[in-house]
Amino acid sequence: MTLAVRPLTGDALRAALGDLARLRIAIFAAFPYLYSGSEDYEREYLAEFTAAPDAVLVAAFDGERIVGAATASPLIAQDDYICAPFERLGIDPAPVFYFGESVLLPEYRGQGIGHAFFDQREAAARAYGATHTSFCAVVRQADHPQRPADYVSLDAFWQRRGYAPVPGLTGEFHWQEHGEAGESAKPMQYWMHAL
Question: What ranges in the chain are assigned the alpha helix state H?
């Protein structure tokens, strides 16, 4: 196994959008997201996200195969539903770099790739001139019926990276879960870190 983590840009990024879309669908299908997505939607989302000025997409490769990916972009380049919780709390979105997602196939976890994703996105945030980074995570109740017995949240990993949930900095994202007829609102908690 030859693992490498590197940013994708230009033609390489565009050529990888299909692989990245399938990866997001596979990873987010599991708890806690339970996402029922389509490849067309994912390709469109990734193309829009990565087209923002100063956006970065970092991919993890096993040889030539993409096994993980992480995105980041200035918060001010995001849709209103992502920025609104910051503005509601009086947090200026201009110096914040937003981390879209970090997905990695289970068999590659525990090998430092998650740290590499954060390192490279934080480096992009510093290069942009951001003072803070932020991401959000879905909030699920502890007794959720689809929570696997062996589920381990990423809270401790994020805390070791210097992130903390910000009280009151919450929002809603909409997506369709497996078993749902359509999209529904999901509560999201934002985490932040000062660079």
Answer: 10-28, 39-51, 80-88, 113-128, 155-160
Q: Alpha-carbon distance 29 to 124, whole Å?
A: 28
| First-to-final CA distance of the chain | 33
The contacts of residue 108 (CB under 8 Å, 6+ apart) are 3, 60, 62, 67, 68
Token pair recorded at residue 129:
């001139």
| pTM exceeds cut of 0.70 | yes
Mean pLDDT of 159-176: 97
The percent of residues in the chain predicted with pLDDT above 70, rounded, is: 99
Q: What is the pLDDT of residues 83-110, one digit of tens each?
A: 999 999 999 999 999 999 999 999 999 9
Q: CA 158, 163, 164: angle at the middle one, nearest 5?
A: 105
Strands 65-74 vs 132-138: parallel, antiparallel or unpaired: unpaired
Greatest distance between any 2 Cα atoms in the chain: 47
Q: Say if CB 121 and CB 72 are below 8 A apart.
A: yes
